[in-house]
Amino acid sequence: MDIGLVLGGLAVGFIVGLTGMGGGALMTPMLVFFFGVNPLAAVSSDLVTSAVMKPFGAAVHLRHGTVNPRLVGWLALGSVPSAFAGVLLLRALGQGTGIEDVVTKALGVALLIAAFALIMKAYVTMAGRVRRRAAEIASTGSEQGAVGVIPRPVLTVLVGMIGGFIVGMTSVGSGSLMIVALLLVYPALQASQLVGTDLVQAVPLVMAAAIGHLLFGDFQLDVAALLLVGSIPGVLLGAVASSRAPGGLIRRALALVLLASGLKLLGVSTPVTAVVLVAALVLGPLVWMEARRRHGLQPCTGQ
Question: What pLDDT does 200 receive?
């Protein structure tokens, strides 16, 4: 089991470094399904592991200037206390099978939303590329979108509060869910700043949730330590490979894994889950080709 946890951490870390998403959405169900860790302990261990991993990527974006610090501040204002609130709610619910069932169902819902968020991230990247190309043709300057972003404090704090609460309860959403929320509130935010701002805001959010779980959760040091042994080099390897790997293929595979995991955690039968996955495999590429066509791009499914 020890080497299995290290290899699992390596695999998840690699995917996080490669795509920038999927850490909590993969780590927690992996611990539950493959290693038999109870859901509450899985959430606690995953959050502590993420709290160590996240700053590596955040530092890179800060150095490259792809972060909007004002948005990070407003998001953290809502997410940090609400992450603690999510942990405290778990604590108030008590121990036993009842709390495990609550965490399992909440995790299942969060994974389904995370699968959708991965697809949305790919769409945002594609749409942003089209907007930048149009801006260059019109000679308006490629940085106009980033300069024109005006903070909306109330909405941003609310996004942080909701995201923090979900992360505190399930460990899912610090990247995948928050990046979609940022997109909805700030559609003019450039793709690079969208990813950078999301990753930096995730650092205080995950740390707050991790501290809460260290104090009130079911943290298992041996599990987290083994995950870190694999996940830290995995993140670094994934970041190095990110410029060479077929990102579209990775995103689609990851979305399918999250979709299947979410459905099983919600108690959906295996035949129904299989039908949903087959439908996604058949209809997904068709929908994606149509989206590309509407944006004036070649209908290639690999982008």
Answer: 87
